[in-house]
Amino acid sequence: MTGLPDIGQAIASGAANPWLLLPIAALLGALHAMEPGHSKSLMASFMVATRGDGVDAMLLGVSAALSHTLIVWGIAIAALTLGDNLIEERLVPWLALASGLIALALAAYLLLRIDSAHGAHHGHHHHGRGHHHHGGDALPTGRVGRGAVIWFGLTGGLTPCPSAVAVLLLCLQIKALALGVAFVGAFSVGIAATLVAVGLAAAWGAARLDGKFDAFARWAPIASALLIAAAGLWITANALTTLGML
After folding, report:
1. Radius of gyration of the chain (CA)
2. How far, in Å, CA of 143 to CA of 136, rounded?
3. What gap in Å lies between CA 189 and CA 65, rounded to an integer?
4. In terms of residue numbers, what domain contains 158?
5. How many domains are contained in the chain?
């Protein structure tokens, strides 16, 4: 990621009006969310596993952007307060560990819901009733409440972009508080836009296939929950290795 440090240099040199660079910060946020990483795949898997809709996609993207903003601010303020610009390198593995453990817990939660929902679904059929895709508590898709959607979305922003922290630190050091707020906000808007688009695409795709392929409708939520579990294991193992615990 070279764009944000370049923005930092432009701010520091005063060569251009830094407020004109905000759209670039938003674009870089969108690109950051598209980089190889767990956020996109986990978001898409979550949407398929829970048969999420457009509102869920919006909540996921906005929650991830919010948590990213808070983490970036927390790290920058801690760095300034402690006079330690390297604090981020020590904090990020712990944040990644938290993200991985939350993903594992969520995967277990989804699998339990899908399993119990399947049981309830079969019970309904014995009573001569079918199931509804969008209503009631016992759905074979393992659908969850909005609170769980927001909670999962917050995990998507737990691992911050180092460049966003660097630019915010620079803005705070040169007493450009409003500019710092604006840059981190623009960056997070870009992240949200990408993740909302990914969520909407996953919801649209799952809805199109649902009903056409019974086997897909039955197994996709389970496969998606298992994918979340695998990603959680990988993130957790990586974090533990970085921390020297594995």
Report:
1. 20
2. 10
3. 7
4. 38-114+146-242
5. 1
